[in-house]
Fold this sequence. Notes:
- With 196 residues, the protein is an alpha+beta fold.
- The protein contains two helices and ten strands.
- A four-stranded antiparallel β-sheet has the order 1-8-4-5, with no helix packed on it.
- The protein is globular and about 45 Å long.
- The two termini are 26 Å apart.
Amino acid sequence: MNIKTSVIKNCITFLFLFFITAGSYAQLIDLHYLPPLRQKAADMNNQAVYLSTPESISFDVYIYQGTSTVPDIVSVSNSNPFVYPLPNGNNDITMINATNVGIVLSDSGLRFEASEGEKFYVNYRGRSGSQATSLTSKVRAVAGNSFKWDDINNSTSNKRLNVPFGKMAVEHKISVTKYENNIFQKYKNFKHSGKT
């Protein structure tokens, strides 16, 4: 192996490790939101939100449901993580009923905020039969006013398969405009030429 190849490999390895390490702290922030989601059946059980932190000194985390201004207050540290239990099924907090889809909800969704700006992780978990789910949250790095979202077209006869999508405004009286662009149709008949 010549010196040039060795230097290139070392640079690539360094960059890979740098971005992996930087990304591993992406959800370590002082403010988290979990938007409400919808499930086809009401079978998401054992729902809970797990709070953890690398901080050794305990600090308070305020947990707000929807637009409430009165929080639940919990304490968390690296030796004392906290589990915030939630009701099973469509609890209209994390999983909403069909009648609540597409309308403004003031009691749904969760906001987690550190009392003094301490950084912590938030992870939502649930179980449905032999399946499970895990959802992480981040706010400041992704807050904005323009988003693109795409999903995989589920071409199956199993009506229980879906792709989740939730949105949550972080300010009062936000109006959302949805634009659809079926890009999948454009590439549906695309054939690989064998060239790279």
